[in-house]
Design brief:
CATH class of one domain in chain B: Alpha Beta
Oligomer: heterodimer
Helix content of chain B: 25-40%
Distance between the termini of chain B: 30 Å
Strand content of chain B: 15-25%
Number of domains of chain A: 1
Number of strands of chain A: 4
CATH superfamily of one domain in chain B: DsrEFH-like
Number of strands of chain B: 5
CATH architecture of chain A: 2-Layer Sandwich
Order of helices and strands of chain B: EHEHHHEHEHE
Structural class of chain B: alpha/beta
CATH architecture of one domain in chain B: 3-Layer(aba) Sandwich
Order of helices and strands of chain A: EHEHEE
Largest interface: A-B, 17 and 13 residues
Shape of chain A: globular
Strand order of the largest sheet of chain B: 4-3-2-1-5
CATH superfamily of chain A: TusA-like domain
Largest sheet of chain B: 5 strands, parallel
CATH class of chain A: Alpha Beta
Helix content of chain A: 25-40%
Number of helices of chain A: 2
Structural class of chain A: alpha+beta
């Protein structure tokens, strides 16, 4: 498993809050910083891919974890 | 990075359910680095009030799922009963909270934080004798031409 600098638990939140909270968290860290995000919203699987595609941030890894989903996002420049 | 994309939205509805699309899409677009402007007109102006008293109504809305399968057996006329709006609004709000859906106030605050520009339609304010003091701070005002100035350059334009 890839290493990360910080973990953000967004379980229980529904669309669009996981993306909005993630954006805010990434804005508060240095480029290169990796955040591991956990969500329970099934839509987030597609949404985080789109988020990474449309922003400068990089999705390093994603997957399912028990009944939740996880994403490793690296803050872009 | 490529040039910043632009989203233009016209928000025309003032009920709790219809308050969601403009704020969800605007806040998400802002998170995706779009420049966003929302033009609020007619009943949409209700979404800019400091004190949000948005309601939902089952009246004339056969697509609305109701508690206890009421939408299947409850007579349509019953949806016009006094107090029905208040009850359905309360139930909808508690369900949304339980499901982790953001409140309108929350989404609106996020939009303001993300520099989403909100423009209130001057004509509507005048038409309905609304008071500028009733609206939140940080909004602009303008008319149809103000909308076109931005929408003409927008990548996406939505009428909600």
């Amino acid at each position: 498993m890839l290493s990360f600098d910080q973990e953000l638990d967004l379980t229980g939140l529904n669309c669009p809050l996981p993306i909005l909270r993630t954006k805010k968290a990434l804005a508060g860290v240095e480029p290169g910083h990796v955040i591991r995000i956990i969500t329970s919203d099934p839509g987030s699987l597609r949404d985080f891919e789109a988020f990474a595609k449309l922003t400068v941030h990089e999705l390093l890894e994603s997957g399912e974890d028990n009944e939740n989903y996880f994403f490793l996002l690296k803050r872009g420049e | 990075m490529a040039e910043q994309k632009k989203l233009a939205i016209i928000a025309t509805k003032g009920t709790l359910d219809w308050a969601y699309p403009p704020f969800i899409l605007a806040s998400t677009a802002a998170a995706l680095d779009y420049e966003v402007k929302i033009f609020f007109t007619f009943y949409g102006l209700q979404l800019l009030k400091k004190d949000l008293t948005l309601k939902i109504s089952p009246l004339g809305n056969p697509g609305m799922p109701m508690p206890m399968g009421m939408d299947k057996w409850f007579p349509t006329l019953g949806t016009a009963l006094p107090g029905m709006e208040a009850i359905m609004t309360m139930m909808m709000k508690s369900k949304m909270k339980k499901k982790g859906v953001a409140s309108i106030e929350q989404l609106r605050d996020i939009c303001l934080e993300c520099d989403v520009t909100m423009i209130g339609c001057d004509m509507t304010v005048d038409l309905f004798d609304m008071k500028r003091d009733d609206f939140i701070d940080g909004i602009e005002s303008g008319g149809a031409a103000t909308f076109f100035e931005f929408a003409g350059e927008a990548d996406i334009t939505l009428y909600i």
